[in-house]
From TrEMBL:
PANTHER family: BLL4140 PROTEIN, DIACETYLCHITOBIOSE UPTAKE SYSTEM PERMEASE PROTEIN DASB. One of its GO terms (cellular component) is plasma membrane. It is a multi-pass membrane protein. It comes from Planotetraspora kaengkrachanensis. This is Sugar ABC transporter permease. PROSITE patterns: ABC_TM1. One of its GO terms (biological process) is transmembrane transport. The lineage of its organism: Bacteria, Bacillati, Actinomycetota, Actinomycetes, Streptosporangiales.
Amino acid sequence: MTDIATRATRVVPATGGRRRLNGGGPRMGVIVAFLTPFFLPFVLFYLVPIGYAIGQSFMVVRRTGGQYGTSYTTFGGFEQYAQVFQNGEFWASIGRIGLFGIVQVPVMLFIALTMALLLDTPLLKLKSFFRIAAFMPYAVPGVIAAIMWSFLYSPQLSPVVDVLKAVGLQPDFLGPGAVLWSAANVSTWLWTGYNMLIMYSALQAIPQELYEAAKLDGASNWSIAWRIKVPIIAPSIVLTTVFSIIGTLQLYAEPAVLRQISSNISSTFTPNMLAYAVASGNNYQQAAAISVVIAVITFVLSFGFMRLTSKKAGL
């Protein structure tokens, strides 16, 4: 009897294990079915183009039989990358976009943070109206926003220029020294509300008990804002900064539209514009190399910034 009971006890786990294995098949099929609509487009429209661009960046076009001979594509190693790093226009575009980011990103995020703090204060009335008004520019496509601002920059059409001239000023928003900041103004107008909303959402998650305790200790609204609120939402500030770094290196629409009314913006004004201009000249391999270099710079800057600020921001 003891042997029979022992055998029966041993059989039960094995049978249960088979049931679990058999039941896992349909569950795995359901998981795959739900994930496929995401992973299939992700692979086809994200990973495959990235892999293709990287592959093209290592290719070069050769010709046989002189200028009018037959062309063929072959592996060229790092030849395209060497040409990119020797291209003065590439470094000039990197310099412009670097100056753009050093000035525009901190200014935009400071404005966004200030607006978020003002919206979070109990003293402000009509919060819903101001929140929607601040976020509304983000709903405008970048190209449309650049076209709208181009009218405000144009000396022949802009009422802003007319008003400034009436008070004795001679503004030139499209001049060689101002056109970069005119593009920066468009980007700031577009993205400040988006960054403000991220910070404001983080502020809404802070427990009210912290503010009450700070007020009991005699803290002013200013102290509460900059010594309690800002440190707590530091991860959100880091996140918006990373997004802004990525967006800065991808800058294209604003200067491309302003180029139609200003001769001070060349076709190679930003790295993305340079890549597009090179691709338009049928040099797809070098355009791919430029794109890969931009992607690497973007990754290094954004990842490096996150590493530098992760401990202080509590990430």
